Amino acid sequence: MRRNRNQSRKESALNPITEALIESLDQEGRGVAHVEGKTIFIDGALPNERVRYQSHHVKSTYEVANVVQVLKPSNQRVTPKCPHFGICGGCKLQHLDFAAQVAAKQRLLENDFKHIGKVQPVNMLPPLYGPTWGYRHKARLSVKYVEKKQRVLVGFNEKATRFVSDMNSCEVLVPEVSALIQPLQDMIVQLSLRDKIPQIELAVGEAVTDIPVIVLIFRIMGGLTSEDETLLKTFADLHQVQIWTQTKGPDTILPFYPLQAAQLQYSLPEFDLSYPFKPNEFTQVNPQINQVMIRRAMQLLQPQSSETIADFFCGIGNFTLPIARSGAAVLGLEGLSNLVERANESAQLNHIKQVKFGVADLFKMTESSLAELGHFDKWLVDPPRDGAFELVKAITPETAPQRIVYVSCNPATLARDAGVLVNDKGYTLAAAGVINMFPHTAHVESIALFTLN
Prior knowledge:
Radius of gyration: 24 Å
CATH class of the largest domain: Alpha Beta
Number of domains: 3
Shape: globular
CATH topology of the largest domain: Rossmann fold
Helix content: 10-25%
Largest sheet: 8 strands, mixed
Strand content: 25-35%
Structural class: alpha/beta
Number of strands: 22
Oligomer: single chain
C-alpha cells in the first residue's frame, strides 16, 4: 500500500522529541549528532547548535529526523531568502551563511580524502565562487495536476517525497525562468491533457538581443488537441520562449514552436569559444562559474603546444577546446555519441583542427584498451558521479601521464580514485579544492591535481 504524507506524520508523531548537540554536516546537508550510541541525521540543523528533534526514520544504528526547535542557534544561521525553503527539496542550505556553506563543503572533501582514499592533498586550493542566486540555467521541474483543487503545481519535489512543491518562484533559477512558474501553472491547467504532463525540462542559453534563449521541453503522455496547440503557442509568444515536446524516449525530443528560433549556446570569452547545444544535452548548470572552473583547470593542467593531451568524459568539449587553444593535440573521449557529434560541431565552428573526438565506454577501460589509445603527456578527467575507477586502475608505467587534472561532482568517488592514483599508481595529490557550482545545495563539485612521482 502506498504511504502518504498523513501516514508519515502519524508515524513521526509516535517518536519522542529528543535534544542533541550537532557536531557536523553530512553529504546531504543534514546536521549530524550522536545520541545513546546512535548516529542521528537531523534535517535543518547546523553544526554547534543545540536542537530538539523528532525522528521519522528509525533504524538500529541510525535515525533520520527533523528539527522541532533550535535551542541554541549557530552564529552562521541566516534567514532563508526563498519563502519555499524547508518544504521544497531543491535547496538544503539556505539557512547557512554562504561562506560557511563553502567551508563545510571543503571540510567534507578533506574528510573524504582522509577516510575513503587515505590520502591528503599537499595544497588545498582556495574555493571557487560564483553567483549566489539566479545561477541555475538548467533544471527539471515536476508537474502535477491536483484534481480536487482544479489546479496544477509546477516546481521541484518536496523534501524526501515525490510530492511536487506548491511554489510560484525559485531563487536559484534564472529570474526569467522563475517568473514563468506561475504562468506555466495557469496555462497547463487549461490543457486537455493537464494530467498527462509529468515534467518540464528547461535550458537557458546566452542572450540574443538582450533576451536569454529559453527552451522548455514538455514531457507529454498523450496527444495535443488543436486548442492545446494554440494555448502552447500563445504562451511561447507571450513569454518569448521556445517549446519542445517529448512523447517517449530522448529521441522523441523535438521542437514544437517556434520552429525557426535561436539556438541555445554558451561561450568562453577567455578562450574565444562558442558552444551550441540542444536543451537535453549535458552542459554545466552554472555558466558563470563554469568559466572560472575552466580557467583553474587550465592553470593546473598547464597545456603546452608540444604536448598530446587526453580529455576523458569530454562531453561536448567543455574542456577539450580550451586545451586545444594552447596548441596541444587533444583527444576527447565520451560515452554518448550525440555529445561527440556536438563536440565536433563546436570544433568546426571555432576553427580548431588539432582535436579529435571519439565514442568510448570509459567505465570498461582496461590496460590494453588504454594502451591502444597511445601515450598522453597529460590527462583531464571529468566523470559523472560514478567517478573514473576503471580508467585510473588501467594506468600502467607505459601509459601514465605526467599530470592529471580531475574534475569531480562527487567527492566520495574522487577520494576513492585518488586512493588508487596515490597509493597504487605512483602519483602525488598535489592540490585540491571545491567549486561551489550549486550554492545553497549540498552538492559538492571539486577539482584535483595529480602529478607523477
